[in-house]
Design the sequence.
């Protein structure tokens, strides 16, 4: 679900607005990004932007959604640990992209006090990925690779929460070694009991 309002008449102008927002955010940062600046760069009136989007965050979210084509499909090699490491490392690389991460971090921050952006970010991006992870965990449970009593949503939060924490709240990066360490450490507590 996009926070954008659907009553746009000019798709070309809308694309110009989104492109201007992405460029300006990259150049001046989210805090200095303004609807006035976006309008000037896109060659439209600010009232036009407000007719189509409720905020600069909504414009930026549309920009990320149009440029970010994230495949939520999990590999299924039959080895859950290897598959989750592969998928988490791929997600971490996307988040590590310097053209993506500053925008995404800004939207995560904005979502903390803007319920509309929070819902749109969940509905259009995060929820889809979390659902795919939970589905893969359910498969691993049926195959006996993850404890049957483990809540798939909680397992998703456990695994991805650690990577998000490092990426969003520390100066360190969530590289492949870090992802592998998260999964290895968590999985020792998730493995089914030995028979």
Sequence:
């Amino acid at each position: 679900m996009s926070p954008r309002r659907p009553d746009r008449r000019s798709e070309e102008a809308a694309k110009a607005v989104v492109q201007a927002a992405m460029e300006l955010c990259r150049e001046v940062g989210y805090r200095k990004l303004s609807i006035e600046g976006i309008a000037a760069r896109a060659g439209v009136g600010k009232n036009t932007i407000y007719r189509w989007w409720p905020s600069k965050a909504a414009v930026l979210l549309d920009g990320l959604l149009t440029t970010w084509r994230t495949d939520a499909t999990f590999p299924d090699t039959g080895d859950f640990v290897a598959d989750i490491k592969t998928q988490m490392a791929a997600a971490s690389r996307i988040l590590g992209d310097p053209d993506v991460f500053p925008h995404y971090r800004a939207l995560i921050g904005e979502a903390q006090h803007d319920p509309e952006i929070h819902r749109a970010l969940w509905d259009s991006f995060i929820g889809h990925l979390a659902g795919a992870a939970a589905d893969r965990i359910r498969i691993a449970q049926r195959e006996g690779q993850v404890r049957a009593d483990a809540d798939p949503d909680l397992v998703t939060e456990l695994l991805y929460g650690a990577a998000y924490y490092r990426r969003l709240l520390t100066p360190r990066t969530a590289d492949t070694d870090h992802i592998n360490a998260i999964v290895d450490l968590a999985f020792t507590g998730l493995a089914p009991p030995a028979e």
The radius of gyration is 19 Å. The chain has nine helices and no strands. The first helix runs from residue 11 to 28.
